[in-house]
Amino acid sequence: MNNDLVHLRDPFVVPVYVEKKYYLFGTTDKNIWEGKCTGFDVYVSEDLEIWEGPLSAFRAPNDFWADKNYWAPEVHFYQDKYYMLASFKADGKRRGTQILVSDKPIGPYIPLTDEPITPKEWECLDGTLYIDEEGDPWIVFCHEWAQVNDGEICCMKLTKDLTATISEPMLLFHASDAQWSYHSIMTSISNDKGQYVTDGPFLYKAENGELLMLWSSYTEKEYAIGIARSVSGEIVGPWIHDTEPLKLKDGGHGMLFKTFDGKLILTVHSPNVTPYERPIFIPMKDEGGKLYIDKEGIGGLVNEL
């Protein structure tokens, strides 16, 4: 199938060089907002245009603790295995990011531990893995606006095997710290409470060595991606924000990857309306740590910068 037929939110692409194949993960359950979920699917392509799938990547075992809101899986190759970080929730239990593992990019993925890695009393989502210059792993995640009103992005250091944390949560920034972020336009959120969304952090080491973070929130009109920069070059920051988000038409929750011929690609879902979300692939340029859209995107998503 082509891109227009792939329905998912929160796209995440894993290029596997030995196979010359791209693995596309995302939020794929039909009941993503309400009702019981089943798992995550994966799509496979050689050219980012025609995809095989959907194929089963994760199906919840009978004793799995969560049965709703299976969101935003992303997969990282680390220590010769593939690790999936994804968000889960159950009635009476906080939303959290759990780590799963597989020997193969396609799966099947199984839980690495019995519970989420994020704080038990926090509502958390969209955990991403970051490996620092010393080779130590960190989880970067969102402390959800639904609990704290002004959404946060936090980090914790992990053990080498990713089974536990070895630091307390550290606040990196609030959503409202970014000049472009606006209290949410989502109809389910009351704007007069000053609630600001943080979604989808993703770490990227720029060509000039600068550590960047892509993350999503809302402008006054639509869903968008902003860029934060670590002043210290380390995950703990401090972080400063570009004054304007990338100019995408209602597109967000993005990540960057390189094609097999070295091109830098941003993938996002758009529009941010269920069930119309589709993965979009946008050529990018990295010029001295500044990210630019390389050319017009697919389907009118991209406006000229």
From TrEMBL:
Keywords: Glycosidase, Hydrolase
Pathway listed: Glycan metabolism; L-arabinan degradation
InterPro entries listed in its UniProt record: GH43_arabinanases, Glyco_hydro_43, Glyco_hydro_beta-prop_sf
Superkingdom classification of source: Bacteria
Keyword Hydrolase: yes
GO molecular function: hydrolase activity
Annotated PANTHER family: ARABINAN ENDO-1,5-ALPHA-L-ARABINOSIDASE (PTHR43301), ARABINAN ENDO-1,5-ALPHA-L-ARABINOSIDASE A-RELATED (PTHR43301:SF3)
Family listed: Belongs to the glycosyl hydrolase 43 family.
Protein name: Glycosyl hydrolase family 43
